[in-house]
Specification:
The chain contains two helices and nine strands. By secondary structure, the chain is of the alpha+beta class. The strands form two sheets. It has a six-stranded mixed β-sheet with strand order 4-8-9-7-6-5, with helices on one face. A three-stranded antiparallel β-sheet has the order 1-2-3, with no helix packed on it.
């Protein structure tokens, strides 16, 4: 009984990771919404401590470590670490619109439709 479970675990894990592929990041009112294939994550923009634009050079493959994530280098999502940005949760759909949003307890790298909206209000 244990052997079939052990063989099925990688498949189940891969399907679970696929459920969190980012589709889009939008700003609705005071919420940042990250839509994945399975769920929509909502982050309250009133809790933001700061934000900064991130270029593709800032998170180059050799400088960023994947802690628990997937999708690199196309649409990275999951937990990553970088010397410049620290540890962050990424849901990137567009490499040209990346914004690092800093909350009191986490850092979130997203690519919203209109990154200027966040950067104008919360730039560090």
């Amino acid at each position: 009984m244990l052997i079939p479970i052990l063989f099925a675990f990688p498949f189940i894990f891969a399907v679970a990771m696929l459920a969190f592929i980012p589709r889009e990041s939008t700003i609705v009112g005071n919420e940042l919404r990250v839509t994945t294939l399975a769920i929509t994550l909502k982050y309250d923009l009133t809790e933001i401590r700061g934000a900064m634009a991130v270029s593709p050079e800032d998170i180059r493959f050799g400088e960023t470590i994947r802690l628990l994530g997937a999708g690199w280098p196309f649409k990275p999502y999951g937990y990553f670490s970088n010397a410049k940005l620290g540890r962050f949760l990424a849901f990137v759909t567009d490499w040209q619109k990346m914004v690092l949003v800093i909350f009191p307890d986490k850092r979130l790298l997203v690519s919203p439709d209109n990154p200027k909206m966040i950067l104008d209000r919360f730039t560090v």
